[in-house]
Amino acid sequence: MDEAVTIPTEAGEMPAHLFLPPSGHGPGIVVLQEIFGVSGYVQRRAAQLAELGYVVVAPEIFWRLGVTSPVEGEGALQEGMSLVQRLDWQAAVSDATATVEWLRGRDEVTGGVGVVGFCFGGGLGFNAAAHLEAEGSAPVDALVSYYGSALPGLHDVMTVTAPSLHHFGLSDSFIDTDTVRRIEASLTQQPGTVVETYAGADHAFDNDDMPWHDASASTLAWARTEDFLRAQLPVA
Fold it and tell me: What is the top-level taxon of the source organism (predicted)?
């Protein structure tokens, strides 16, 4: 069940959604949103992770822009892209790392803490994980990135040594196949990094509320995500 919480940051209290597993405790996962905010789709994925035994939190990353509800309806894509263009990226990275640290400190979290990010959140999660490692803070224990939209500009300038899994469609309208292959070659130099690709799948193929949804790619990618998380963040 979704519980409204707030996470302290240097700019104030950031709203977030907390999902507890049936046991009430377990490893932690930070879920980072697409450009549409913490939408119904993101909340469903967060709830599914909680059902698997994880303590899950999804922060409202657009809160500094005064937006704490999903971007929906006609024009949602344009509005979401406009929000990302207005967003202070480094502040968003700071908010994501604050969320990881907040979750790690929760009494309900009895294991490691991972990050699962979608689209905008996939790139943000990668940057946040790299930042925590560079600062010497407790690193994330696992990272799953779905078609991280910022990765084309991040993969060759920062490093994540935590185990990570990256999903990309090979018919992505925003990240072409040559770019995917460059990202794959760069990231997989790091032991413990896996890049999975999906022929025919577009960007946001996992989002079943969007026209780009690819049911077979989504099902396979989610099964791989579950397996990866069970291996890296085992639930007792």
Answer: Bacteria
